[in-house]
Design brief:
The complex is a heterodimer of chains A (121) and B (264). Chain A has 121 residues and is of the alpha+beta class. Chain A has one helix and nine strands, in the order αβββββββββ. In chain B, 82% of the residues lie in helices and 0% in strands. The chains are: A alpha+beta (121), B mainly alpha (264).
């Protein structure tokens, strides 16, 4: 009986170790996988650059800097993204992995001027 | 200048307005006073102001992912509350108090999200002191169209259907709205990089573009996305099946009870 319990305990310990290792590896790959970074500026209700070239098939980190005093909403139907960027502040939007193609985006609060495209290639 | 603001406000209003009209029709068949709506609406507005005022701190939290995390939380909460409503409707739970509490909280959270964004949008006009009157007028028109759509749905619901059919239609709408909400919540978590993007399921933008009026109504009613990811589809499927299973169980229970009554 005792040896059975000991065997179970050891087995349980082994499984736990394996589980912990897996979790650590997975979280490490999620957190530390280097994502290419790109910068997008908003100035006078315009995007700079208005045409952003990014690599296809990888997740990218888009750093959005709003240099206007007014808030803006980064939005794109093609990218499935929507995020408010407050005035004089910065924010981060993760995008992709994208198939090669052209993905328009716009500033919803100033849609007549704030337009741009992301080109994945 | 005018039209984009009308469209923007309409988009923000439509979702809440359609949800409220379905809830109002439920409130009608349960014959409860509509005070829950006032309470939900006003507390939603208060939450919206608090959201807008703290958006800067919220945005910077969770490594700039605070907005996504909060909105996903709110949407999962609304999904859960709508699921409760679905259970109550399916099994004809008669507690009016529970019903109005669930509906008031649902409205409060729905208003807080959309209203908060509108407050932020209008704060831009107040900061620059430009065109505020134009923007406010346009916004009023957008809101009026949004509420009209809600009113249209409400009156079609209560006029077109008998009591028994009405309940089915309500369960149907609640199921669609809740599934759409869970899809959007998962989309936000993908955007925050909390969930992986495992690929786009399809592209239906050439049939029904999301930017079109119909696309917007479909988005507000059942969370239509023209290019959904697989994970969003899974979330939608889970929410939808949970609701359908609940409804099927209620039918099963009823038929068992009927057989029992018939046998005795």
């Amino acid at each position: 009986m005792h040896s059975v319990r000991k065997f179970c305990n050891q087995r349980f310990l082994g499984l736990t170790k394996l589980f912990v290792t897996l979790i650590v590896c997975m979280s490490a790959s999620f957190t530390f996988a280097a994502k290419p970074e790109f910068e997008l500026r908003i100035k006078d209700h315009l995007f700079y650059p208005s045409e952003l070239h990014v690599p296809a098939n990888v997740k990218i980190k888009l750093l959005v800097l709003n240099e206007d005093s007014t808030p803006e909403e980064f939005e794109s139907y093609e990218l499935n993204r929507e995020k408010v960027i407050l005035g004089n502040s910065k924010s981060v939007i993760f995008i992709g992995p994208l198939a090669p193609g052209i993905y328009p985006f716009f500033g919803e609060f100033n849609i007549t001027t704030a337009q741009g495209v992301i080109i994945a290639e | 200048m005018l039209l984009p603001v009308i469209v923007l406000v309409l988009r923000e209003t439509l979702e809440a307005s359609l949800l409220i009209s379905v809830l109002l029709s439920i409130s009608r068949i349960y014959d409860v006073s509509n005070r829950w709506l006032a309470v939900g609406f006003l507390s939603g507005m208060c939450f919206a102001v608090i959201y807008a005022l703290n958006l800067s701190a919220l945005s910077e939290s969770f490594e700039y992912m605070g907005q996504e995390v909060y909105n996903a939380f709110a949407m999962f909460l609304i999904t859960g509350l709508l699921f409760c409503l679905c259970v109550m409707l399916s099994f004809s739970v008669s507690s009016k108090r529970l019903l109005i509490i669930v509906m008031a909280i649902t409205v409060a959270f729905a208003i807080s999200r959309e209203g908060g964004e509108l407050f932020v949008f209008y704060s831009g006009f107040i900061i620059t002191d430009q065109n505020f009157v134009y923007a406010a007028t346009s916004g009023f028109i957008g809101m009026a169209i949004g509420f009209s759509a809600g009113a249209l749905l409400y009156y079609s619901l209560i006029m077109a259907a008998e009591y028994k059919v009405l309940k089915l239609i309500q369960i149907f709408f609640i199921t669609l709205i809740a599934s759409g909400m869970s899809l959007q919540a998962v989309q936000l978590l993908i955007q925050a990089d909390w969930l992986p993007d495992i690929g786009t399921a399809w592209d239906s933008s050439f049939i029904l573009p999301e930017s079109s009026i119909l696309g917007q109504i479909a988005y507000a009613l059942f969370g239509y996305e023209s290019t959904p990811t697989w994970l969003e589809i899974i979330a939608y499927g889970i929410a939808l099946s949970l609701m359908l299973i609940t409804f099927a169980l209620s039918l099963f229970k009823k038929s068992v009870r009927n057989t029992y009554v018939a046998a005795h």
